[in-house]
Each structure stands twice: as structure tokens, then as C-alpha cells.
Design brief:
Layout (H helix, E strand, L loop, with lengths): L12 E5 L4 H11 L3 E6 L20 H4 L5 E5 L5 H13 L2 E4 L5 H4 L4 H7 L4 E6 L13 H8 L19 H24 L4 E5 H8 L2 H9 L16 E5 L4 E5 L3 H10 L14 H6 L1 H12 L4 H10 L4 E3 L3 H10 L5 E4 L6 E4 L32
Parallel strand pairs: 1-2, 1-4, 2-3, 4-5, 5-6
Antiparallel strand pairs: 7-8, 8-9, 10-11
Amino acid sequence: MTDASNGALEGIRVLDLSRVLAGPLATMYLGDLGADVIKIEPPAGDETRAWVPPVDARGVSTYFTGVNRNKRGLRINLTRDEDREIVLQLAAEADVLVENFRPGVMERFGLDYESLSAGNPGLVYCSITGFGSGAGRELAGFDLLAQAQSGLMSVTGAPDGEPMKVGVALVDVLAGQNAVIGILSALRARERTRRGQRVEISLLSAALSGLANQSSSTVVTGQSPRRHGNAHPSIAPYQMYPTADGDLVIAVGNDRQFEALCRELGSPDLHEDPRFAANGARVAHRAELETVLVALLTSASAGEWAERLTARGVPAGTVNTIAQGLELAEKVELEPVVTIATPEGDARSVANPIRLSGTPVRYLLPPPDAEDHQTWNPRREP
């Protein structure tokens, strides 16, 4: 049975003291899932409010609106005793607190986990840092630095080109998602123990974990992988190829798919060539295989090949723009965009990727305009 009125996290209050991307993304997901999220911003506002253009229909930075829906807003100057007292009152009743200040800052304000949990033992306190709270506590926590220093950039880009960052702040996104996992796990543990705990997430750890097979191979072999551009270090063909009118991605994951690829390309004997008969051989002879495939693929368009290969059971697709990616999501009925109506104009954002059959995500509040704390009621329902 679906209960559209109550989210999965109904009754959970989240105090969001984070800014920019990783923390706000995590708290937005919690808000989507039904939690009551109170976003605390400094007097000048979250830094991303000034990261323009582009802006939405309300004139607000799309960077800010992309990770701050389903939150109530409040601007607080933590250097003022009366403002800090408001945060302390809110923290005393919160289930979750999320912050991404540099280690040591929250201690100076008396808002660290030890101080707050003394009066609220059930508090789940999530800290997001760049390089942890130990020896790396003084290092700046920016996504670009984490991409560079984790090794992510070393495996991104053309083999003969310079190291390249990913086209989005991916490490921040990974850290935000890890924060959600940690917070939900701590809430589940609290049901048994009646006590909260501290959840620690670092950008560096998120990046190293997110490197998956690349970091795993380094741990096992002691050798750092090199850049392969759009190719895969352990699978072939698994990369982008030129066609008659554009680029095509082919992602062959096994020998059966490779045989189907060869047949659709009009070269059915290719899969019997000893250089290409098995995946390991194809990886070893990647350059030769690429030459053969490029010659065959130039006979038709990327769209035509994508349709024909997909029909054969071969994973293939065109290289889309983000707009085309959204159109594809619409076509396959994923409902990728949500709209929240406001007096100033519609607030549109990308939908939460989580689908729950019984307690679906909710989109109730647009990204907040900060309110005057003198008239703000923390008990008000959203």
C-alpha cells in the first residue's frame, strides 16, 4: 500500500549546517524521503547562492537549487551568542545534524558531537571533511583537490593527454551519498540502542572507495592504472567509436555479446580470430580490434548502429548531451524532472533517483529563502 502523505523518514528532524554540495545533497535526499530539514546558512548565505549564472525562474542559482529543495531556511551568525543559542535549541531536538566545517570549528562554537550528544544522546551527528579529522584536518576539502589527490584524475582523460577532472564534482556527490548511507545506518542502530553516534565521511575516502576496480587493482598489484580515455582497462570492446555521423558507445561485457556484435557488423568470423576470441585476448589486442571496428562502423550512423545493436542484444548507445539524456529518461518513463510551484515561479530540479513503492519520495518545498530567526518557528510543520 502506498502512503503518499508520509515519507519513509517522517518524524525525523535534520539540522543542516552544511553548505556547497556534499552535505546539502545528503540533506536534500533525507528531505525527499520525508525528513523535516532545517537549513542553517551564514548571514551571507550558502556560497552557491552566488555561483551564477545560470539562475532559475526565481533568479536563484541553479547550483543552489539543485541540492536544497525540501528544506526550511534560517540565516544564523554563529559568532553571536544569541544566534548560537538558537542552534543549540534546535540541536537539542534534532535527530540528525550534518556539518562540513573544517575540523575544530564546531568545537569552538560548542556545537561538536561531544557537546551536543551530552544533552541529546540520540543525536546522529554527521561530519563531512576533506581529508578526515586526524592528520589531514587542516587540508582544504574541495572536490577538485580530492579528485587530484585521490588519483581519480590520473585515470581520467586521453592516454596521451593531461590528467582530467570529471565533468561534475563527483567526489562531493559520492561523499553526499555515503553520508546518507551512514546516517540511515546510524538511525537504524539507534532503534536498538537508543543512542546516536558520530558519522564521519571524508572526500578522500569517498573518492578512493568510488574508484572501485581501479583502486582495488592498485591495492592488490601495487601498480597504479594508467589512463585509457573512454576505454576500459579490463574489458574490450568497451569504449567510444566514430561512425558515419557521430560517436557510438559499445559496452560488450562477454564473448556472446561480442559474437553478436560481429554478426551485426557483417563480419561473423571476427569472433573466431584468436586475437579476439576471448575478452583477455581482446584486451591484449585492443588497438588492432579498434582499427577493425572503426572500419566497419563508418558504414552507418551512430543512431542506426545503436538501434541495430540494441536489437541484437549488444549494449550500445549514442553519446548524448545532458538535455538528450533527460529526454531519454522521459522516453523510458523515469520522470527525471520535478516541479514545485511557488509565487515567484516554478522551481524545477532533477528528481530523486530512489523509488519506493510504499513511501515514495516527496517534493513539498522549493529551495529556501532564508527567514528572519526572530519570527521563525522551529516547530512549524513544512
